[in-house]
Amino acid sequence: MIEDLQRVLGEISDKVAARKINERELEDRLLELIGSELENKQYDESSWLRAFSDAEGNNERAKALYVKYRLRRMKDQVARRQMESNAQLAAQSKEILVNNFKELDNKVGSFANNLLILAVLLLILVSGFVFVIGF
After folding, report:
1. Mutual orientation of helices 59-133 and 45-54 as an angle, nearest 10°?
2. Radius of gyration of the chain (CA)
3. By the 8 A CB rule, do 30 and 71 touch?
4. Angle at alpha carbon of residue 60, lines to 52 and 70, rounded to 5°
5. Neighbours of 64 (CB within 10 A)
6. 3-state secondary structure of 125
7. Using an 8 Å Cβ cutoff, are 73 and 46 in contact?
8. What are the pLDDT digits (tens) for 65-117?
9. Residue 30 carries which DSSP code?
10. Mean pLDDT over residues 122-130, rounded?
11. CB atoms within 10 A of CB 49
12. pTM as predicted
């Protein structure tokens, strides 16, 4: 039992570590994109305005704040897309489950009907057999 608990905790720990690595890799990629935006002076307007305002006109400070604000904004966009994708997958999964349940229900219903017909035929057969034998 303790070994099972240790195994489960190890699996959870591995998943958490993998998730953290993925998040860091995503952040690194986003930072590269932000660096490219800064280099090409193609700023996200709302992030730049917030950074420039908070930096009180200091361009170097505004650039540093821009990285922070833009990273947060990009992470939010990624999270929103993931949520939308998850919601879409959940809806598709629900539809598949409902369709499978309906199909199963139809099969069970058909099976029950066939079983009832078989029981009636068996009853008729047994009744006829009993009548012929004279019981």
Report:
1. 140
2. 33
3. yes
4. 55
5. 13
6. helix
7. yes
8. 999 999 999 999 988 888 888 788 777 777 777 776 677 667 666 777 777 77
9. H
10. 64
11. 14
12. 0.59
